[in-house]
Structures are given as C-alpha cells and as structure tokens.
Design goal:
Chain lengths: ~110, ~900
C-alpha cells in the first residue's frame, strides 16, 4: 500500500470548483461527492464534511447545480446533485482560471 | 435568471423552513450512515465508526447552522427564531414579563405625556392650511421694570404689543414678502343676546382677509366680503363658531340670516366657521365680526379705529419663496414714522415670529423642561430597577442558556437572543406607555387646562402625534437595551461548561448601587412633590388670606355703555342685594384688574424731590375688602362706607410698603402721594400677594373704590359662610335681578381662580407626585426582589451558618441589615438631591423655606420605612430556613 499523500488544506474557494468537477460526469449525492474528491486526489484533498453541505446549498442557490431526490445504490432515498447549464459554464470558466493561476504561480516559483 | 433562482431558494428556505430542515436532516443522516458503513468495512466497531463519522462531519448542529447561514436567510430566520424564543420566554415567566412591561409603560407614559404637553404648548402649528408659512407680526415695546420682576426677568424688558388699525393698513399695503396680512383681536368679550337670552362669549374682531388667508372654508354660508370691511360701522355682519351654532341654533341652516344683538348692536349672521377651527389662541372663539365693527367689540378707546388705539394683532402668510428672515427684514421698514421716537411703553420696533404652540405664558417652557427632566429621571430609575430584575432573571436562566451554549449556540447568538427578548419587552412596554399616556394627558388637560383663572373655557389640542409616539418607543427601546446589556454581556464570555456545574453565586453586591440610586431618587421625588403640594395648598389658605369661602363675579356696565353715574348706582344696588342674601358675610370689590391683583403706580412722600418715587402695586378696593379676604390689619382701619368722593383722600398700605416708606416706623397717619393725589395712610395691612420664593417682597397701596368718581366696572368678592361654589348661581341671579341688561361674567370661586393661577405648581406637584409614588414602589419592589433572590441563592450558606449555630435572629438581622444599608445610603444621597431639586423648582414654591427640612426628613423616613418592610419579608424567609433541608437541596 502506498504511503498516503499528506493531507492538504483546501485553498479558499476551491471547494466549489471541486464539487462542480465531481458531478460533471453524472449526478452524485453528498457523501459520494466527498468520497470522489478524496479518491481522485489520492486522499491528498480532504473535504471538510461540515462545509460540504453549506457549499452545496450555496451552489444550488446560485443556480449552478440542481438537486433531485433519487435512489442510491443501496436503494435508499438520497439527494442527487447535477450540474445545470450555468454550472457547466461556470466549471469551464473556473477551470480555465485555475489553470492560468497555477501556471502563473508555478512559473513564479520555478524561477530561480 | 440567477436572481430569480436565488430569490426562489431564499423564499423557500424562509417560508418552508421545516421542510427544508427535514430534507437536510435526511441528507445528513444518509451521509452519516454511508460513512459509518465505510469505516466499519475498514475494521472499526459500529460504535467507533459512528463516533468517527460524527467527528468527521463536525457536529450535526453546527452543520445545520452553517447550512442555514448559506441559505442566505440566516439573519431573518434567526431573528424569527429569537422572537419565537422570546415569546416563549415571556409566556414561561409571565410575572417577570408583566412587571417589566408595566414598569416601562408607567414610566414611558409619563415621558410621552410631557412630550405631548411640550409639543402642544410650544410647537404645535395651527390647524389651518400650510401653517408653516404663517407669521405673527407684532410691535415691540420697551417697558419699565415693574417692581415685581426678578432680576433675571429684568434683562428682557421688551414686550410684544398689538397695533392700531392705521398701523395695520400700513403694514398690509406695504408688505412684499407676505402674500397677505390679516388683523385680528382674538379676545373680544362680546355680550350676545339671541332670542332674548344674553350671555358673554369670547369673540374675535377680524379683517375680511382673515379666513381666506388661513385657508379656512365656512361650514355654512360665507365669510366676510372685502367690501364689508371697508366702511366703519356700516356692515353689521357676523360669523358664528361651530359650538355657538350648535348651542343656539341646533346646527340648523336657519342660522344664516338670523339676527343677534352683540354688545347692544344688531348683527346678521352670514356664516358658520368649521368645527376644526376655533381661533388662533387657547381661548375658543364663538363669534367673529369685521374690523370695521371694532367700536362695538372694543370699548376702552374713544375711537377704536383711531391711530392711538392699539388693539389689533397681525398674522400673515409668507409670499411664495420668501422666508421668515425676509419678512423680518422687510416689515420694520414699513413701521409708521412715529414709531421711531415712541415713548417707553409704546410700539417702537417690529417682531416677526412663527406662530408655534398654544403657550401664552413665559413660565410654560420652563415648566415643560422641568417635567421633562423629571420624566427622564423616572425613566432612569425604571432602568436601574429593571437592570436588577433582568440580572436576577438572567442568573436564574443561566442554566438554560449554558445548556443552549454547549449544544452549539454561539455566545453572540445567545447575547442576541437576550437582546431580542429585552427589545420585545421594552417595545411592548413602550406601546403600552404610548396608549397609557393618552389617559395621562387627558387627565392633565381636564384637571389643569380646561379653564383659565377667570373661569373662561380653554382649548388645547393635546392629541398625540406620531413624532411623540416614535420618540417614546425609542426611549423605551433605549431603556431596554441599557438594562439588558449588563445581563447579555455575561454570556459573551466563554467557559460555558463551568457555568453548568457551578451555578452562579448570588451577585448581590453588583445590584446594590442600583438600588441605592433608586432609593435616592425616590426620596428626592417624594420631598419635592411634597414641597410643591404644600405650596399649592398654601396659596389657597394661609398666606395672610383665606380663599376658601370667597365667591367672585365681574360686572361690566361699560360693555352696554352705562355712564359712571348709572353704573355706580347699579354697583351700590348689587352690593346691597348681595349683602342681604342669606349665608353672605361681606361683599367688597376691586376697580382694577382682579381680586388679589391690580396694576402699578408711583408712590412718593411729600418731601421727596422731583421724580423720586417708589413703583408700587396698586388697586382701588371697596369697603371691607380685607375682611372679605380675611386679611389681618396690623394698624389702623380699612376702608368703610364713609370713604367717598367728598371725604378726605385716604390709603391703606401693606407691611412692605410701610417699611420702605418709613423704615423707622410710623407709617400710619403719614401722608403719601399716590399717583398725583395726596392721601393719608389710615391702615397698614399684612402682605397679600401671589409671589413665590424667588420673587422679592411686593409693595402694595390700596385706595378706596368709591373715591374714584370714574368707576364703571368692577370685580366683586363675596365672603360666604358655606361652600362658595354652591352659592354662585344664586349670586348670579341676584346680580342679574338688579339690572338684566348689565353683562356679568367670571362667576367662579376665588379658590378656583387661584388654582388656575397656580397651574404650573399644581401640574408639577401632580406630575412629580406621580413619579414619586412610582419611584417608591419601584424601590420597594427592587429591594424585595433582590433580597428574596439573594436569600434563595444563599439558602445553602444560611443553612450552614445555622447548622454551625447561628441564631435565627442573627440571620434575620443579617438580611435586613444588608437591605437597610443600601436604603440608608440612598436616603442620605436623596436628601441632597431633594435640596438641589427644591432649588430648581424654587420659582414654583410659595411660603417660607424654614420648614423644608420636615419634608426632607419625612421623605427619607418614608423611603426607609418602605425599605424596611420590603426587607423584612425575605429576611423572615431566610430565618425560617431549616438547615437540613437547605443542605439537602443542592
């Protein structure tokens, strides 16, 4: 088993972006979203579960995601979150912005 | 789109809160279950997994709170929640809530009553169209200092005076800054006869443009045409007030065209004024006639329309775009040339002011200020009381609040909830206070503002304005914040866990100074109220006269143009008839002003050179005047029936004038010059005046009524054996029986006349008395509450003391001593406050200050006694503590 990567604190504002990305393929419920972020980041990113649900609600209010009650794998009622069109646009825009930012910061840090 | 989605979510979150909360609950439960399963797969037991999952989620309540914050309605929602909690808290401790609301209501009602009083007396505008544009224009007169003015009043020896009709025309025709200027004489006594029934009413002589300028429309008929106010004595037309219309014509349209006799002249009624308007002064006007009829309405000038008869007041409306300052700059330039070198006492300048308030009395602004200060002190006492009460309540709730805190409610949240509860209580108190103040101001109006000192009805619009209501609610809220901040502050601190286990110790000491302040205020208010009340009583009986058995009536043959001869015959007949009435002891009269009043005159000794003289108060009084007032003569005699025109001129002086004329004594028998006539002093009488403590002693000289051959009118004083009020109708009938044509008025008792003159004293005595009662009750309640609370908190300590052998008497003494120490310190400070307060109301105090200490001592004793009673009850409860029960109860 590989040594787990050290846990990183999420920079301010990135949780929204990660949530959008996590549900970009298919609708997910809250727990799955946090699991997915953790898995894909190889456990490097730990979602503060306490802040997940407020963030979900914030995004929903902004009209970027929409919630629908559905049935989970274990056949229980669960709330699934899906990207809206506005949410997909926001994801694209924010992904671009994030890339530009990290590239710029990386460039700066790489400069001897 | 986004805005819409946002709004929809917020609304749903706010309106369907429970549904949203239930969904969140379900979602979180689902999350937890999945998390637990995952952790159990990793090898944890169910209990360990559940604990870890909960930790990871970070507290369900916190998540919920954060989620609610994210809903964007957190503030509105938690305020709603606070309000719900608040309402629940109020229901749970109804006694506490009722006490707070009642206390606040009783004190804010006093404040609201004062604010309404001040607003009406000093600020309220006339009930006419665009009243903000109106200006009063008057002449300024320099007057010599009458002796009775105190030094502070001597600084402003300018009075505003009315103008003559030619003066008015000069201002009206010249003014460019005014769109109109009307003239009016608003206090014309008119003796009106309708269908053979005669009575005196308060009338007004007004220019034809008076009603249009004020923007008033007639209720019926019309007002005066310009043409009807152009030729002297030609157009005998009258407008009647709404009350007169109802009283004499049953509000029938047939009033228009009806004939009435006014001061002996025939008039035709052309219109009725609306009920909403009854004049510009506090004396309601029942009848209006045009200025060209001034000779009918005003009898003290040979020609009322001549340039030397100054009787008219002026009211104007500013031209569009003009300000008060513009008018104040322009109007003096229009003053008649003669004003530039007018002698003292005549118009020499022009004053332009905005008509505000119904006050006619220089004392009233000061009265309002004093009452306002008293109301604020009362509110502070109320705050101190409630701070103690709320502190005790908060301590009792510490347990509940600590539990809420440990369940995750932030300290700020708890503080906000406490503030919300206080705000709810204080707003409820404020609303109740605003409503209650209507009753207060109604009572004040009925008791003190219904009639003037001559018995004429007065009108004041004491209706409540939104401004006053808002200010009162603001004061109540401010008071609420003040008294709750202390208790809320304690919960902003952390360390909640300790508070649950360790119940707050009785914080008796922090409330002690609050109670001391209350006791001090109570003592001061009781003392000042007693001083004022004693003053008001002194003025009715005791100041060298006895007003309790004297009836008054005024006869005015001048209004019906009687000659001096005929009028004097009438007067002698009246005196004879009244003296013959059963129950009447003596009858006398004054020729100038009113009974106990008069005017002023120069007095000199024959040897004095040139202009040297004393200015003295003066009146012409009938035989037996001093006997009628029950005033003692120090030397000589008073006037009798032999002091007539043919007999040698005589005078009576008061003690003060006698001492000023002849400091070495021997005034009796001396000759003095009163005005221009040499008179021999035949009597020296005790001082007889209505001066308060801050006024200097007054000189008085009296001359015989019957030694003035020009006498026409008089005010009669009738001393009776029984109740003078009961005899008033019989006296009026008797006077009317002598000559039904002669107008009479002001049939009141001397007592009620003095009461009306003493209005500021009586208003403040009543008001301060009210606050004193409230302050004493609050002190008692506060003391009782604090001690009872402290005893309840210290049951265990007391139990231990008793278990260790403390006697019950000792425990009793311990508690009583604790209460009485506070009260004693408070009472001592209160006596000092009372002395300061007595100085502030010095101008309202009558009689000697020698006995004031009795009032201070009694007030302190009263508050100490009340304090003792309030402490003995909880002290006895403490003494009845059973040590074993007390120790077991923890």
């Amino acid at each position: 088993m590989p040594e787990p990567a050290p846990r990183l604190e999420l920079p301010q504002g990135t949780l929204d972006l990660l949530i959008l990305k996590a549900i970009a393929l298919e609708p997910q419920h809250g727990w799955a979203i946090s699991e997915r972020i953790q898995q894909i980041s190889n456990d490097a990113l730990q979602v503060q579960q306490g802040s997940l649900y407020p963030a979900l609600h914030r995004l929903e209010r902004r009209g970027w995601i929409k919630a629908k009650w559905g049935t989970s794998d274990s056949n229980r009622r669960a709330k699934f979150y899906d990207l809206t069109r506005a949410g997909r646009r926001a994801l694209d825009a924010q992904t671009g912005a994030w890339r530009a930012l990290t590239a710029a910061v990386g460039l700066l840090l790489d400069t001897p | 789109m986004r805005v819409l989605s946002d709004l929809r979510h917020r609304l749903r979150a706010l309106l369907r809160r429970s549904a949203v909360d239930a969904e969140l609950d379900e979602e979180l439960r689902f999350h937890l279950d999945l998390d637990i399963e995952k952790r159990m797969r990793a090898g944890l037991t169910r209990a360990e997994a559940a604990r870890a999952a909960r930790l990871a989620l970070g507290g369900v309540e916190q998540v919920k709170d954060a989620h609610r914050d994210a809903r964007g309605v957190a503030l509105a929602e938690s305020v709603l929640q606070d309000l719900r909690y608040g309402a629940r808290a109020m229901r749970r401790s109804p006694a506490f809530s009722a006490t707070v609301v009642a206390t606040l209501a009783l004190s804010t009602a006093a404040l609201a009553a004062v604010l309404t009083l001040g607003y009406t007396l000093l600020y309220r505008m006339l009930p006419v169209e665009r009243p903000g544009e109106l200006v009063d224009v008057a002449g300024i007169r320099r007057v010599s200092a009458p002796e009775r003015l105190s030094t502070s009043e001597a600084a402003r020896l300018q009075v505003l005076g009315p103008v003559s009709h030619p003066d008015y025309l000069a201002f009206r025709n010249g003014a460019r800054t005014l769109s109109g200027l009307a003239a009016h004489y608003p206090t014309a006594p008119l003796f009106v006869t309708v269908d053979g029934r005669g009575r005196e009413v308060n009338g007004a002589v007004v220019s034809a443009n008076f009603f249009p300028l004020l923007g008033i429309r007639p209720a019926l008929g019309r007002f005066f045409h310009d043409d009807e106010d152009r030729v002297p004595d030609r157009d005998r037309v009258a407008v009647i007030g709404s009350n007169f219309w109802r009283a004499h014509f049953g509000a029938s349209p047939s009033a228009i065209g009806a004939h009435v006799r006014i001061n002996g002249a025939d008039f035709t009624i052309v219109g009725v004024a609306p009920a909403s308007f009854s004049g510009t002064t506090n004396m309601p006007i029942e009848l209006y006639i045009p200025t060209m009829m001034l000779r009918v309405g005003y009898r003290w000038c040979d020609d009322a329309l001549a340039a030397d008869c100054t009787v008219l007041q002026m009211i104007g409306r500013l031209a569009p775009g003009r300000t008060l300052a513009d008018a104040a700059a322009e109007l003096p330039t229009l003053a008649p040339a003669a004003w530039a070198h007018a002698p003292q006492g005549e118009n020499s300048g022009v004053a332009v002011t905005a008509p505000r308030g119904m006050s006619t009395d220089d004392e009233e602004p000061r009265l309002v200020r004093i009452l306002g200060a008293v109301a604020i002190v009362l509110l502070l006492v109320c705050c101190a009381n409630l701070a103690g009460l709320v502190g005790a309540q908060a301590a009792a709730r510490a347990h509940e609040l600590a539990i809420r805190a440990s369940l995750g409610a932030g300290p700020r949240r708890i503080a906000r909830q406490l503030l919300t509860e206080s705000a709810m209580l204080s707003l409820a108190g404020g609303v109740a206070g605003v409503l209650l103040s209507r009753a207060f101001i109604g009572a004040l109006a009925a008791m003190f503002f219904a009639a003037d000192d001559e018995g004429h009805p007065l009108q004041y619009d004491f209706s409540q304005t939104p401004l006053v209501a808002l200010a009162t609610l603001g004061a109540a809220l401010a008071a609420g914040v003040v008294f709750s901040v202390a208790s809320a502050k304690r919960f902003l601190r952390p360390a909640t866990g300790r508070r649950i286990t360790q119940r707050a110790a009785a914080r008796w000491s922090s409330g002690a100074w609050l109670l001391g302040v209350q006791a001090a205020a109570a003592v001061a208010m009781v003392a000042v109220a007693a001083l004022l009340g004693a003053s008001a009583r002194t003025m009715v009986r005791g100041r060298n006269y006895d007003a309790s058995h004297v009836a008054l009536i005024r006869v005015r043959p001048r209004l019906v143009k009687y000659s001096a001869d005929r009028a004097q015959r009438f007067q002698r007949d009246v005196v004879r008839r009244l003296e013959a009435m059963p129950g009447v002891e003596s009858v006398s009269m004054v020729g100038i002003g009113s009974v106990l009043g008069g005017s002023s005159i120069g007095v000199a000794l024959p040897g004095w050179s040139g202009n040297q003289r004393l200015v003295s108060n003066y009146n012409e009084v009938g035989p037996r005047y001093f006997a009628t007032l029950d005033t003692r003569l120090i030397a000589g005699r008073e006037f009798d029936d032999h002091d007539a025109v043919q007999s040698p001129p005589v005078a009576v002086v008061n003690e003060t004038l006698a001492a000023r004329l002849r400091p070495e004594g021997g005034a009796l028998g001396a000759t003095i010059v009163v005005g221009r006539i040499e008179r021999r002093i035949v009597g020296v009488v005790k001082d007889l005046s209505l001066r308060s403590r801050t006024h200097e002693r007054e000189s008085w000289v009296y001359t015989p009524f019957w030694q003035n051959p020009a006498q026409v009118d008089s005010r009669l004083a009738v001393r009776v054996a029984g109740d003078p009020a009961a005899l008033l109708p019989a006296i009026a009938r008797e006077v009317n029986g002598v000559d039904p044509d002669v107008p009479f008025a002001e049939t009141i008792t001397l007592e009620s006349r003095i009461a009306a003159l003493m209005r500021p004293v009586r208003v403040s005595a009543t008001f301060v008395g009210y606050t004193a009662v409230l302050a004493v009750v609050l002190t008692a309640v506060g003391l009782y509450g604090s001690l009872a609370f402290a005893v309840a908190r210290r049951t265990k300590e007391i139990g231990i003391r008793m278990a260790l052998g403390a006697a019950r008497g000792r425990v009793l003494g311990l508690v009583v001593r604790e209460g009485m120490t506070v009260v004693a310190f408070g009472a001592a400070a209160g006596v000092a406050f009372a002395a300061a307060g007595a100085r502030i109301v010095g101008h309202l105090l009558y009689g000697s200050a020698d006995a004031d200490w009795i009032f201070y001592a009694s007030a302190a004793a009263l508050v100490v006694c009340v304090g003792f009673v309030a402490s003995i009850v909880p002290a006895r409860r403490a003494a009845e503590v059973e040590p074993l029960v007390a120790l077991r109860c923890e």
